[in-house]
Amino acid sequence: MSLQELKLKKVARDKEIAVAANEAAKTAAINSAELTKTFYANAEKYEAEYAALEKQAIENRRNAKANNQIFVAPEEKLVFVIRIRGIIGVSPKVKKILQLLRLRQIHNGVFVKVNAATTKMLRLIEPFIAYGYPNLKSVKDIIYKRGFGKVSGQRIPITSNTVVSAALGDIGFHCIEDVIHEIFTVGPKFKEVSNFLWPVKLSSPKGGYQGKMLNHFNEGGQCGQQGDKIGILIKKML
User: Fold this and answer.
1) Which of 15, 97, 183, 212 sits in a 20 to 30 Å window from 114, CA-based?
2) E-strand spans in the chain?
3) For the chain, first and last CA: distance in Å?
């Protein structure tokens, strides 16, 4: 084969590669636009759901007050747990529970589903943790500001939806709003989504802890169950 034929063959091959690359780029752009539309639609749907839940709670309280009754809110399904103490000189059971909850370092935080087993474990390690019921704003702030995901065993910052799609795409989660919705509502895939989220590394609280850290929250300290007041501590530690 002559040199001229080789050159012509190379030009044709390069042209085919360029055409294929352009087609691939166009297809990727179309898919990206469709995914963006889907993400926006999901976000709007979730926001409407959150607003409906808030509106229903307000109506229930108003109806109860109008009828001279007391409205008892449904039991919370989600807690956010923050480790605030070390474990030097403590029992092996406490160490094991902290390991099971993935609280291996001080100021680590995790989302935990409320059930009989987790409630018992949290009570056993109350002197070493602060926990409570996060609201929607707290959940969003935690994931957007300090969210890291586990992708192929590595700690990857959740800076785009591609990180979520790479790890959770096979179970139908493709954007950060999907993760927030599943965590806040404690959906059927909570375990998988929670395991995808790396334990949150929080900072020391601005202005220090309230009262003595070793005292229970009910005694003016910081450890133990804080109910919906946990949002104050989360805000100070973000």
Assistant:
1) 212
2) 78-83, 108-113, 129-132, 148-151, 154-157, 200-201, 224-225
3) 69
